[in-house]
Amino acid sequence: MVSPLWTNPDGRKYLFVINHRQKNPANVIERFEWRNDSLIYLESIQDKNLMTSPNDVVAVGERSFYVTNDHGYSTKGLGRTLEDFLQRSISYVNYYDGTSFRKVASDIAYANGINHSSDNTKIFVTSTTGRKIYIYDRSPATGELTLNQIIDTKTGADNIELDETGSLWIGCHPQMLKFVAHAKDASKFSPSQVIKLSVNSNGEYEQEEIFLNDGSSYSGSSVAAVYKDKMLIGSVFEKSILFCILTDK
User: Fold this and answer.
1) Which helix (H) or strand (E) holds 181?
2) 44 domain-assigned
3) Within a 10 A sphere around the Cβ of 104, how many other Cβ atoms?
4) Residue 2: what pLDDT?
């Protein structure tokens, strides 16, 4: 499932992309249509007040989407630094209904990755510094989110992908301070981790560690996507993608 891609019932496909631009407004959502094997630019969507630090976007309609705003402080500085290191829960999730933005989920420490269930009734959000996954029930009619549960992952969860069974595959940063150091100096390793969240027969989520590396061969994993027995792992700063074959234990 490619979360920023929306497919209409008539087959038309729309791609939503976060663009951090140099000019004002700095942060916009670029909307494209995939037509005749080409991306056709349609529009730029922005809100200077609410979408100040967009991180990830998930489409839920032809012109509607959710986007995480990973910081409460809109600009870099002491406030944002303290927000990270004190793990302050002041970031949030915006919803764009095709006309305007509004805040639909708040009190999250570094709202990062976001995705939806296959039936569009649940929204999943990672809290990276909070080391949690927030699961919301979504109203398809209004777009409003209601918190269903919070899962303590005990790791810095980043982006979320779903497989065909509905399980969540999440790229993670198990040692956040090492990741911060790696962001400043690529020669410093940051451990890579992939976890899987699956629903058991009781309807509860079970967490399983799928991949763990000390960073010496692949640092700063941020996303994992699975197809059958194959897994691709992406990173924030690595110039490559890790290809893995999944095997039974």
Assistant:
1) helix 176-184
2) yes
3) 20
4) 46
